[in-house]
Specification:
The protein is an alpha+beta fold and 470 residues long. Helix content is 50%, strand content 15%. The protein contains 16 helices and eleven strands.
């Protein structure tokens, strides 16, 4: 238990012990003298002096503790967080060592270590960048090649979860719901025909033809299931004739082959952070009162295995059903004309609910944004039972409760840049929050917080921050 106490709390407890111990010694000495005195009345001045000494000892202890906390404990905590950000989140640049000016050679030594980390990281990054550029070129050629083939292709693991989809498959899947890596194929197609065809595939080890129906019962497709050999899972190929796929409507080839070996999904609390899917979102609204204001814009991106999945995003204007105040428009730039004729929150909420299925919902000051969704849950016909993670609280876990935890402060601390024209837009802020999350995940793991349950337990210790913020 003691090993989990923070440095600041340890120092505070040490001074509590010191102050109370000193006061107890004075009190016991006075009691011993009082018990031995022939005339206790003569001891009144000494008792007064002893009581005064106790108050002075306690006051001096508190004063020294405050000085030590401000000039030693807080700077050490800040230095540790900055070093962790450079070691695990790829942050570069000069460290803020001003607060640690009273720590002797510790701050310069930390700066030197950070410099070495940055130098090695730059060397490694250059090599990675060259390899990444080569892989990106190969991916573009493969995507272009697949786009010319009049079929839609999805690779699925043995648990029927999506590992890869191409541009045409994205068009097919989007007829039912937003395409998503790690999503169950049963979110898009009716289960019975797929399971029957898969059973035949496992038995024969050869390609199986089947007809598929969309999960909503509105579409039908001719499809083939092809085995993937020892890799497990299968390739689902949907022919062009029924799908009416537009080859020119190319989308990114989206994949993560690590998902082929993805184990069965455990309860969220037990899942390692690296295996979780996060949906990071933000809303822009007509005002700051969730009980009466309305959403005018919703932006969301998906984060899987510590990286943002390009091509899997929501960026939607919402008709609030009421005029947007000029003051709100001045902040986010959304006008009445822009939202006229757009879907309402009930429709967008349903779409977002499916987009976030089997994922942890993440937001910066999540209670504010989630309040708008929960208020309209009945209209949407959904229940918001998703686990929720708040980057304000994650920041407090990593950097200490006494630091600033605004989105701008977090971005500055972690080297994330928000383009000026995207700040205070739903997609811009959601993207920035997602980048911040991706940099904080390895920092959490370095702190020994390896599962979602570990992180939630730590964030609950800082819940008061959100109460004050809201």
């Amino acid at each position: 238990m003691g090993e989990k106490l923070s440095l600041r709390l340890r120092i505070f407890l040490f001074f509590c012990l010191l102050g109370l111990g000193g006061a107890a010694v004075v009190a016991l000495s006075l009691y011993a003298g009082y018990a031995r005195a022939d005339d206790p009345a003569l001891l009144d001045p000494f008792i007064f002096a002893g009581a005064l000494a106790i108050f002075v000892i306690l006051g001096l202890t508190v004063g020294v503790w405050l000085l030590l906390d401000e000039n030693v404990a807080k700077p050490i905590e800040r230095l540790a967080a900055q070093l962790r950000a450079r070691a695990h989140a790829g942050v570069s640049g000069e460290m803020d060592t001003h607060a640690a000016r009273y720590l002797g050679d510790l701050a310069p030594a930390a700066q030197a270590v950070a410099g070495q980390i940055a130098e090695r990281a730059m060397s490694t990054a250059a090599e990675v960048e060259a390899q990444t550029a080569r892989l990106a070129q190969e991916k573009e050629r493969l995507a272009a090649l697949l786009t010319e083939i009049p079929v839609a292709m999805v690779i699925v693991n043995a648990a029927h979860r999506i590992v890869l989809y191409d541009g045409q498959a994205a068009e097919v899947l989007a007829q039912v719901a937003h395409p998503r890596l790690q999503a169950s194929l049963f979110d898009y197609f009716q289960r019975e025909a797929l399971e029957t065809a898969y059973a035949k595939l496992i038995k024969s080890g050869k390609e199986v033809r089947t007809g598929l129906t969309g999960a909503d019962g509105q579409q039908s497709y001719d499809a083939r299931l092809k085995p993937l050999g020892e890799a497990g899972g299968y390739m689902l190929v949907i022919d062009d004739s029924h799908a009416r796929i537009a080859p020119e409507a190319a989308r990114p080839l989206v994949y993560d082959f690590d998902l082929l070996d993805s184990p069965e999904q455990a309860a969220f609390e037990a899942r390692p952070l690296r295996e979780l899917c996060f949906v990071v979102f933000d809303t822009e609204t007509t005002g700051l009162l969730p009980h009466k204001d309305e959403v005018v814009q919703l932006g969301a991106v998906r984060v899987l295995r510590g990286r943002i999945i390009e091509g899997e995003a929501m960026d939607q204007l919402v008709d609030p059903g009421q005029p947007i105040p000029p003051g709100a428009t001045k902040v986010h730039g959304v006008t009445d004309a822009m939202v006229r004729g757009k879907p309402d929150i009930a429709e967008i909420g349903r779409a977002f609910h499916r987009f976030a299925e089997d994922a942890v919902i993440v937001a910066h000051n999540a209670p504010f944004d989630m309040a708008f969704l929960r208020r309209h849950a009945k209209r949407m016909g959904v229940e918001w039972t998703h686990p929720v993670l708040d980057t304000v609280l994650v920041s407090a876990v990593l950097f200490g409760a006494s630091e600033r935890h605004t989105l701008d402060a977090l971005c500055e601390r972690l080297g994330v840049t928000i383009p000026a024209h995207l700040r205070h837009t739903a997609m811009g802020d959601a993207r920035a929050t997602a980048e911040v999350l991706c940099r904080m995940l390895p920092m959490l793991e370095a702190r020994g917080l390896e599962t979602f349950g570990d992180v939630v337990a730590e964030t609950r210790k800082h819940g008061r921050l959100l109460e004050d913020l809201n």
